[in-house]
Amino acid sequence: MLSLASALMFAVTFVLVKITGQNVSSLAALCVTLTTNVVTLWGWSLLSAQESISISIEWGYFAIAGIFAPLMGRFFQFQGMAKLGANITTPLTLTHPVVTVLFAVIFLGETLRIEIIVGVLMVLFGSLLLGAQNGNHPKNVSEVSKKYLLFPLAASFTYGVSVVFRKAGIDIGTDAVTAAAVTTTSSWLVLSIYLVAFRPAHALILCHTEFVTLVIAGIFSSIGPVLLYMALQKGHIAIIAPLAATTPFFVLLITFLFMRDNETFSVWIIIGTLFTVLGSSFMAYIGMS
To answer: Are the C-beta atoms of 162 and 170 separated by less than 8 Å?
Structure first.
């Protein structure tokens, strides 16, 4: 349930970012949400700490995880959402359990069962359906450059690698809130260095409504990683990662209820999303059996 709750938090985040529209750059969205993450999570960590917080070895894993995601993962995903829409970008991005499971087998000694492979293939099939879907909507993949598919695929890779580092760190120790705070802080620091070095002020222009919307998105995306870390503390990565990848289902549901006129809804989008979610859920079910 913690993994599913985490998926819901990230789904709300992505939809809120999408609501800000084409006028908000991916850099601005990343800057506001990450800053909100850092303030929210460290405030939460300090208020809930039973004793003084001190730097420990597992923080290195969390810091590396944070560079992969949310920093790179969220940047690539926001870019993809701007070019392809949320309902295409999110399912392609959330194929990261495939990356996570493979890296977990190689580096964490997890066992790759045949049933897990079936689940992986279901996820990949769903993603291929999304990538090849056709229609008349202006946000249809067939009507934009195929190179934009690299954004969600790059996001998938970075998110997948990040989860492996998170699992390695949380298994050593540290509470979930502090772990999430360290993860987002490393992302924020790298982004801050970039902003100071290149000063892309034109890319950070926001109106009041857009800023407030992104802050709210940042609050939801602060809760998401805490729930994910809590889940990783309790279960195997081959179970947690697929369940956390059910975000496409929640994105599809939210956009259908509130944004159906601005998103792509074709038979292939729905079928592809269902295969992605079912494949992830199947891997989780097998992992628990």
So the answer is: no
Closest CA to 162 of 183, 192, 179, 182: 183
Compute the distance between CA of residue 115 and CA of residue 66 in angstroms, rounded to an integer. Answer: 30
Q: Which residue in the block uniquely carries the two structure tokens 């460290």?
A: 42
What letter would DSSP give residue 30?
H
- CA 98, CA 280: separation in Å to the nearest integer? 9
What's the gap between Cα 35 and its chain centre?
17
Question: Are 276 and 127 spatial neighbours (Cβ–Cβ below 8 Å)?
Answer: yes
Under a CB-based contact definition with an 8 Å cutoff, are residues 77 and 181 in contact?
A: no
Chain segment 46-63, per-residue pLDDT in tens? 999 877 788 899 999 999
Residue 202's Cβ-count burial label (10 Å; 0-12, 13-18, 19+) is: exposed
Q: What's the pTM value of the predicted model, to 2 decimals?
A: 0.84
Sign of the CA dihedral 181, 151, 241, 276?
positive
pLDDT digits (tens, 9 = 90+) for 127-148: 767 665 544 444 555 566 778 8
The residue segments making up the domain with residue 78 are 2-288
Count how many residues are written for the chain: 289
Domain tally, the chain: 1
Distance between CA 49 and CA 225 in Å, rounded? 18
